[in-house]
Amino acid sequence: MGAVRIVIVGGSFGGLTTAYELRRHLSPERAEITLVAKDDQFRFVPSFPWVAMGRRSLEQISFPLAGPLASRQVHFANETVTHIDTENKVVATSGAEHPYDFLVVATGHRSANESVPGLGPFDGPGHSPMSAGETEELAQAIGRLLTEPGPVVIGAAPGASCIGPVYELAFELDHLLRRRKLRHQVPMTVLTPEPFLGHMGMGGAGKIRQLLEAALEERDIAYRTSVAITKITAETVETEGAGPTPSVCSIVIPPLAGVEAVASSPGLSNPKGFVPVDDHYRHQAADGVYAVGVAVALPPVDATAVPVNFPKTGHMTEQMAKIAAADLAARLQGSEAPSTELSARCILDMGDRAAYLAVDPVRPPRNRIPTVSEGRPWLVAKIAFERAYLAFARRGKLVPTALGW
User: Fold this and answer.
1) Domains of the chain, earliest start first
2) Is 249 a catalytic site residue?
């Protein structure tokens, strides 16, 4: 029997972790692995808020994919996927066709900025740090804010699932403004669809609500919960059922949708473009297809007055990739690998310190009381983890353990 053909679509946390894990389980003689990605760079997305604040450049948190993948004998195709044919098992790109026996969809997301009129940054005054280009544009906007201070709104749109950066951006900007002695000229407001601070799409966790409330209040950052942002203008952020909030620099996290190639491929995704999977991250209908990371369809943990979707972090993506890779390798041996509930561990930058949050599992009720801790050592740990992850990943390896992000 010849080598099985495995195609991975996507070169971020999900795709890279899957590639490394599959090669750990399967020799080059057993599996021919191809990773297809439109971007030839890996970017450490959790550090995007630091890029926005001028504490990092994109170059510092990026590296070319080709070298590390080649070191693991994984072929890299720097191409844009246009269509996935699950019946004939072919991934079509802008330059080629890649037949597969097994496919892993790790495409990440498309930011649905169109859900909030004015949420640019390239076609409106609003800003978002959900991609490399948008983050660099946001860094320029924050630079202008430092020379022309005014009110700021930081928030998330209805249906958002990536809430953590809202808090990080608020705390980091507060810290930056205080160091520049400009904080008194910049009223700050956090607007969130969450029913309470720290819900984060997972129903809250331990004392995180009280920690965030206290942290925002001691920093004079106003906040409103259960808010539906409806429009962004050059001078305000409008919300349902309330008057406009003044803002000359509006940073809003959008809801996410599936990427176009996945959403438009028949039989692959749900109406929102996300891939339905079982607890091993196998597609529920298409043979040989797995999905990991943000591309996976996961229902919200509860119903809220304003929609808040299930969170998808780099740490959870890594877990999905390891489960999927182990199961794919086991299936080739005629067995099935074990699966586990997703847990979450993250470090939230608070400017001069950080908060650590650990929940197991993500969906309540939980086996353990969530861990919530605050202090400067966690900020040091977050910086160290970023450096360690990039150092290992550049060499074709994954960090042996993860604090999470």
Assistant:
1) 4-109+258-340 (3.50.50.60), 114-254 (3.50.50.60)
2) no
